[in-house]
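4.2 Preliminary Data

To establish feasibility before requesting continued support, the project team ran the inverse folding procedure on a target of 112 residues. The structure was first converted into the token representation described in Section 3, and no sequence information of any kind was made available to the design step. The complete token record follows.
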């Protein structure tokens, strides 16, 4: 059973950047599609970005051009580089592995 641990969240001012990491243990990530989701207070969890095992990538329209998803299979890690952050990006960000495995989430707060 793959286990996922997110890190890299924090408090950042509008216009700033953060890089989230999702480290997997218990199995290789290389064959799995991976995704990032987020959940703001009072809202449902929503899709942010996706990367397949052969590096096909998709983004939610709200983050396209600002966020970049990537993966390093040798490190068993998926990343989410977030630039030009906005207050509406404030949420708990979750990593998801193909097959339904979720991490515990990392809080991102964008505020001045």
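Position-by-position output of the design step:
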């Amino acid at each position: 059973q793959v286990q996922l641990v997110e890190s890299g969240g924090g408090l950042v001012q509008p216009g700033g950047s953060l890089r989230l990491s999702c480290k997997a243990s218990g199995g290789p990530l290389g064959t799995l599609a991976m995704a990032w989701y987020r959940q703001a207070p009072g809202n449902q969890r929503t899709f942010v970005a996706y990367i397949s095992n052969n590096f096909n990538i998709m983004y939610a329209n709200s983050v396209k051009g600002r966020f970049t998803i990537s993966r390093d299979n040798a490190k068993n890690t998926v990343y989410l580089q977030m630039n030009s952050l906005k207050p509406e990006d404030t949420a708990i960000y979750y990593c998801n592995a193909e097959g339904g495995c979720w991490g515990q989430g990392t809080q991102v707060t964008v505020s001045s």
